[in-house]
Design brief:
The structure is a single chain. With 413 residues, the protein is an alpha+beta fold. It has 16 helices and 17 strands. Helix 16 links the parallel strand 16 and strand 17. Helix 11 crosses helix 12. The radius of gyration is 22 Å and the shape is globular. The relative contact order is 0.12.
Length: 413
């Protein structure tokens, strides 16, 4: 008989699996950061820096204020413990997990390794391999080649050298040996990764099954689409084969969740046998758009009834909530969103807009205000100011006793 879960139970299971059911530690060191990363298994990287680089924020949401240099040492050193890979798009993954993503690198090589650009630029690709072998890790700006002053390549407007380095990274021939600011330093994979990671072979079906297992632990309860999206696996038959294997061994338990529908029927979902099922989750956090709790928009809607889209690429007059709105977690629910900007010139955290979801609890403003103050301190900002755009703006300004500022686009209620 299939187990049934209430929607609220599923929310608490999901949040507990992501580490939100436990209190934040009094002090945060490398051990706490490593344990949180191990729980999540993956940390998405994004270049937007209007408030904080996205990969720093999931740790802040779970642990509170911490020294980001500790994460940098784990991920952006010459011999990192965590390494950049195309996992859930560009992401940090454990070096130990590198072999599990070889099938992804093989697929990317099949797609981009023999196309017209690659064939026309094979001499350049070989020259880049030789250059890295001779000189070690390099930033693109440190590589001198005629291609840098030539025509730009077809990918994202990058020139041919950058394009070539990115392709070699996608194929696994090149790895990222740290960053200067947000600029990558490229190296041959053998210069960054241990031989154990490079020499271990995991068959495609076995690798996908293991990634599905890890996603099921990280999510606690999930549909097949959720499990596939955690690692952006497009091979649905392989995902389903992995799920069935885990069901057969008893690691996944089929469940039906109140309100989760697919084509008018209860959606198929699975609960990990070791998932915590707390009666209460009392978290408070600012979530990046690329946090696993909300990064798959269908899942965010099923769990929290939260319709979420990032409006960075939406023309300003058409934005409903703001440029880079962060979901606001209070208790066991997403209760609103706030568009934040770190104005470092004036040492202010600007709340550019703020909005409540229906049914936000009465203490939401006070709890979000506490998180905003903590976020400002974490970013080295002295104060928080609030605009007049959004139905939560007045509540947050009152809870913060904050000064007000005009929205840059003149928006207000």
């Amino acid at each position: 008989m299939t187990m049934t879960l209430r929607r609220a139970d599923a929310r608490r299971v999901a949040l507990a699996a992501q580490g939100f059911a436990r209190p934040r530690p009094e002090t945060v060191g490398t051990r706490q950061i490593a344990a949180t990363l191990q729980r999540m298994r993956i940390l998405q990287i994004d270049s937007v820096n209007v408030f904080s680089r996205s990969h720093y924020m999931p740790l802040f949401a779970r642990l509170g204020a911490y020294d980001t240099a500790l994460l940098d040492r784990l991920a952006f050193s010459r011999r990192p413990k965590w390494v950049e890979s195309w996992a859930h798009v560009a992401s940090l993954v454990s070096v130990d997990d590198w072999p599990l993503l070889q099938f992804r690198r093989d697929d990317l090589r099949a797609k981009y390794g023999h196309d017209a650009w690659a064939q026309a630029n094979e001499p350049l690709l070989q020259w880049l391999r030789d250059e890295l072998a001779d000189r070690g890790p390099l930033r693109p700006a440190e590589i001198d080649h005629d291609a840098r002053s030539g025509s730009r390549g077809p990918w994202w407007g990058w020139d041919d050298v950058k394009n070539g380095l990115e392709r070699l990274w996608l194929f696994g021939e090149v790895a990222i040996a740290g960053r200067r600011g947000f600029e990558r330093r490229y190296a041959l994979a053998s210069q960054v990764l241990p031989a154990s990671a490079l020499e271990t072979t995991v068959p495609r079906a076995e690798a996908i099954a293991e990634l599905v297992r890890r996603a099921s632990v990280a999510y606690g309860v999930a549909t097949a689409a959720d499990l596939a999206d955690y690692w952006r696996i497009r091979d649905r038959p392989a995902v389903m084969a992995g799920i069935h294997r885990l069901v057969d061994t008893g690691e996944l338990i089929p469940v039906e969740i109140e309100g989760w529908q697919a084509a008018g029927r209860p959606a198929k979902a699975w609960l990990h046998r070791d998932a915590a099922r707390p009666r209460k989750v009392d978290a408070a956090a600012l979530l990046t758009p690329f946090d696993p709790v909300v990064w798959f928009r269908d899942r965010a809607e099923r769990l929290f009834d939260f319709d979420y889209r990032i409006e960075i690429y939406t023309p300003a007059p058409q934005r409903r909530f703001g440029y880079y709105s962060l979901p606001l977690l209070v208790g066991d629910d997403v209760v609103g969103r706030a568009d934040l900007k770190a104005d470092r010139a004036s040492s202010a955290l600007r709340v550019q807009s703020a909005w409540w979801e229906p049914g936000a609890p009465t203490d939401a403003a006070d709890r979000v205000a506490t998180e905003l103050l903590a976020a400002a301190r974490w970013q080295g900002l002295e104060r928080v100011t609030v605009s007049r755009w959004g139905d939560a703006a007045e509540d947050l300004a009152g809870a913060l006793r904050a000064e007000r500022h005009d929205h840059p686009d003149g928006r207000r209620n």
